[in-house]
């Protein structure tokens, strides 16, 4: 059974950059994601830059998950191993189900680029209240890899044999 549509289903996608130092001017990762999602035919629901604070991240993501106007949340940053990197801990408790294959595939793809350093990636994906949530590392290269290697296809209703769109909207 195919879960693909014959036409693009534009999704409303919110983008969060988690960083203690980035501004709108220096946020190349968030800017890349906005440009990529709009070029693919999706709509930007909102773009925010937040300091790496687990509770502020959780509050914003909770608001987006609760909103019927947001089908996808993409977060860049805060996925490393420093004491300030709390994105996975902020997001994981909000998920109804984790998409284990997202992080696994992201690490598989980045292994080709980074070798064993990819084991330090804590990329994460999941579904909550019919909203897909994806956490990517903060570098623009990682966002490019995550978008081009996984998200562009999985957020496209035309992708066969299956994609995430069926879980986010009624086709």
UniProtKB/TrEMBL annotation:
<dbReference type="InterPro" id="IPR036425">
    <property type="entry name" value="MoaB/Mog-like_dom_sf"/>
</dbReference>
<dbReference type="InterPro" id="IPR013484">
    <property type="entry name" value="MoaB_proteobac"/>
</dbReference>
<dbReference type="InterPro" id="IPR012245">
    <property type="entry name" value="MoaB"/>
</dbReference>
<dbReference type="Pfam" id="PF00994">
    <property type="entry name" value="MoCF_biosynth"/>
</dbReference>
<dbReference type="InterPro" id="IPR001453">
    <property type="entry name" value="MoaB/Mog_dom"/>
</dbReference>
<dbReference type="InterPro" id="IPR008284">
    <property type="entry name" value="MoCF_biosynth_CS"/>
</dbReference>
<comment type="pathway">
    <text>Cofactor biosynthesis; molybdopterin biosynthesis.</text>
</comment>
<comment type="similarity">
    <text>Belongs to the MoaB/Mog family.</text>
</comment>
<comment type="function">
    <text>May be involved in the biosynthesis of molybdopterin.</text>
</comment>
<feature type="domain" description="MoaB/Mog">
    <location>
        <begin position="14"/>
        <end position="158"/>
    </location>
</feature>
<keyword id="KW-0501">Molybdenum cofactor biosynthesis</keyword>
<protein>
    <recommendedName>
        <fullName>Molybdenum cofactor biosynthesis protein B</fullName>
    </recommendedName>
</protein>
